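2024-03-11 09:14:02 DEBUG pipeline.ingest accepted 1 chain
2024-03-11 09:14:02 DEBUG pipeline.ingest length=635
2024-03-11 09:14:03 DEBUG pipeline.predict start
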Amino acid sequence: MVRVPTYNSYMNMVAQTIDIKSKLDLYSYQVTSGLKSPTYSGYGMQAHTIVSLESMLGVTSNFITNNDVIQVELNSYSTTMESIQDTLKDFKSLLVSASGMDLENASPDYTGGKIVFGAENPADYVGKTLTIDGTTYTFSTTDGDGLINIGAATDGAGVVEAIKNTLPANSEFTYEGDTFSFPLYTVDGVSTVLDVDGVTTGEPHTMSDEQYNTLKTLQTQAFSTMQMIADVLNTNVNGKYIYGGGTSNQAPIDFPFSSLEEFQSYYDGVNVTYPSSAAANLSNRTLTAEDTGNITLHLIEGNQGSITAANAGAFLTQAVDANAQTTGTLTFDADQNTINATQYGAFNTLSAGDTLVLGGDGAGNNAKMYVVKSVSEDGKTITLDDSTALEESFTIEPDNTQADKTVTFSTSYPVGTVIEMNGFKNSNIAPQVQVTGVSEDGTTLYVTADPSRFPDMEIEASKEWSLDASSYYQGSSLSTEKMISENQSITFDINGGDSVFEKIFRALGEIAQGNLVDTANPLEGETGDVNTTLDRITEALDLIQSAIYSSGLDSSENNSDIYTVVAKINSNTVVMNNVQETQKEVQANLENSIYSLKNVDQTEAAIKALMASNNLSASYACLNQVMNVSLLNYL
């Protein structure tokens, strides 16, 4: 007999039905999703463990995704360095081949010019001139400065004896009978005696076709290699230039030349040569009329000139503030050609190749220009280049409040820096000049320039013009540390201004510039350095070898050779591969652990869902039966 339901019994039956319904919903969810519960609360005591594991998985997955991006950069570094390495080896082979040629024969003959004087009538030479090493001598019958007295000569041997008695001693001059022999390059200027009948001289060598083709190919290859390396170092990965240091949105290498001819018109190899030091090659310095005031151009001699500023010390920039706190006691050692400070890091603002100008009464006779050879790692010692020696040794306690103890350290354009003369209205002014030095007071800059385009003139100050020294490298030296796991990181500190790349550019520029072969003809009054070709190829070979592997000689420089750079890239790659492999294993383990905690056997869940469905149907039927029973029906 079915009893009339009470409110309590009704609510109890509804609750049981709802409970069965919720189980059916849960089992249905488990069947379709494979998860135990749609919410963490459904996992009970395991919820905290699941959340922790998922958090660890998220961090690991983020590192894996980020490391995939970093791996692309590493691969780019590796690929570009392999390309540079292969290209450099090819160019080195060409250099070695060229250096094996008889390069001395590619220059004028400096081993044996001679003049054979006729014996018929020595008086025929009276009034004629012979110019040796820039000094002109005139044949005469009397003695005097610049005169070769041949009054007593009766034959050619007498003429030669008179020459011997007049010219300064020179081991390279020989006098034998009627023949005067000399290095051909010493004939400088117009020597009218060369036109006299019976006088003969040596002939300068001319380049053979093989020499010309070899050197022309070498220069073409050097320029092409510069273009190639510039393109490689301007590689853009993931939206940034990887060789630009911290300047990732700007191409780091500025190589504006599109042809070898254009390059050689800029670096003619005579008036403007490719910078021969790292400091000059990487110099970035700009001066305007606001800094200099009016400037005066003056051609001193040959291609040597000067630029003098109206503003005192315009070409100097203070580099070190010498005092008790910054430098401490200063010791000038003329024997070692060094300057020593007692404070650590006193000279850290200076670097090898810098043009250093000492000033102040406290510097004494040492107040002049120097070229920095090196700076010690602790920044306490400057070693100066042998070409710029200290005058005296002494020790001083610098104090810029006392005139007699004031010592100033200033820098200027490094020697060898190419300055672009921009914005001058006079088109006859050379578009570029090259720094050879600076005056002690920093007011005059000494330069070389095309003498035909360096007029003596004063130029009024104007915002239109400037003196710009611009390095091929436009990036920065900032290094980047990238986290590849919670406890490991790798550092990217390779940029286009590093020593290895600077040496490569300098070696290539040494060859690609103009005047690789000295074609000056002494017989026509021309002069030149007969060792130009051999010297430049030798220097380029040394630089290339140092760029490939410097044997630790440049250990103070950052990334001094390809060996070091490749080793860094390989080291970072090994670390990255190990980390990525570990992270993938951790990721798999975490996923398995989370899966085992969160997932169910879907077959079992399906069976439970069917049972719950049957129970729910029975519950609905029972509830419906009971709800249809009323007191009226019962009675």
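2024-03-11 09:14:41 DEBUG pipeline.report The radius of gyration is 42 Å.
2024-03-11 09:14:41 DEBUG pipeline.predict end
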